[in-house]
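Hi U.,

Before I forget, here's the chain from the pilot set. I'm dumping it here mostly so it's searchable later in email.
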Amino acid sequence: MEVNQPDRSTRRRRGKTDAVDAEEAARAVLSGIARALPKNGDGHVEAPRMLRLAKNPAGKARTQALNQLKAVLVNAPCTLREELEPLSTSVLVRRCADLADTREGNPAADTAIFTLRLLAQRVVQLRQEATELGRRMTIAVRATAPSLLEQLGIGPDSAAALLITAGDNPERLASEASFAALCGVSPVEKSSRKTQRRRLNRGGDRQANAALHRIVVTRMRQDERTRLYLERRTAEGKGKREVMHCLKRYAAREAYSLIRADMITRHQQPDTSATLITTA
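Structure:
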């Protein structure tokens, strides 16, 4: 069973030790509070998870190196700065990666050229890493849940995030509402007396929530049905953010049904890798 972290008030009152945490986990299972089954980590979804884990930091590191390159260029020698500043980012990286040492005996200029070349080569290397990781992640997602990539607005990165949240055993989720709660797009009751209202769910997997947000933003720009829905709900007095919350809930429902269908289809296919070929 999957057990959540102990209640904060209980932890403040009793303190924290491994023995106390183990006792609280056991009591949660015995009392029925902990009813969720944990995700499996040894199936097809594990491949996109590892690739995405390596791809995202590579992209962030590339952006950081590119910002550092432009910061060094600000204080570079005047001649070099005037030559490189008007260039586009891609051309700038290529030119800086091919810079040759001047050997003029100027420490500042020599160091600036060396630093620009080093940072540009780092940007190129990180770009190649991110591209290769993205290619492999696309192949892994297509092999696991090809139906996701066929939908408008769902790219490999968003599909991988939703697959990671669902896990290799999405059947552990009771319904699509459970998946929506796991993604943080299910409304939470906040009613009191005669006031009936719901608030935004700030829990759940934030990576999956961000993926659903990207899907909705893309569909609001490119999908005619989504634009019509936005216009209709806006005419009813709903704000744009409220409509986006509804669209994220619908997107989570659609993604869950596609993931379940692909998982069932894959489990029903015979495992040809274990077939023995015998010859007479």
